[in-house]
Design brief:
The chain is α/β, with parallel strands linked by helices and 152 residues long. Strands 1-4-3-2 form a 4-stranded parallel β-sheet, with helices on both faces.
Length: 152
Amino acid sequence: MRLFDDQERLDKELASVKSEAGRRLGLISADVPLISNLDVWRNIALIYEYHRNIPERKAEVFVIECLKRYGLEYIAYKRNTFLSQEERFCVMLLRAAMLSDAVIVIDRPFHIMPYLKNTSFIYEALKKVDDFFALCYIFDYAHDKNRYGNDS
């Protein structure tokens, strides 16, 4: 986790990580929404298919298995507008984790899920797919430090 005093410093560090990670960057951000006209499974599978040259049917089966890690297989055929904020976050996390040796960056998680009191949900979600990514960074503002508890 990296905390920043202002947007300029956060943006500068994000640009640096983007440059280092290259095609391995899996960005989870309110500024990078799900594709609204695709079902959940297709939002995730699109990345998986493209980067691994996997046929669509195999990708669909794989994505549904991934959703089962969260007990969310029932949302596979829903669209973004019908998801809760927690479901949307898990979908965004799975989408980011579909890159080979993914470097996941969670950009201001409390901007994505503003009602969260702490990071428990985020860390639990990460644990369920920690075999899918190489690194994970959480970028946020210093004024949210208290929401990170002892993790900061």
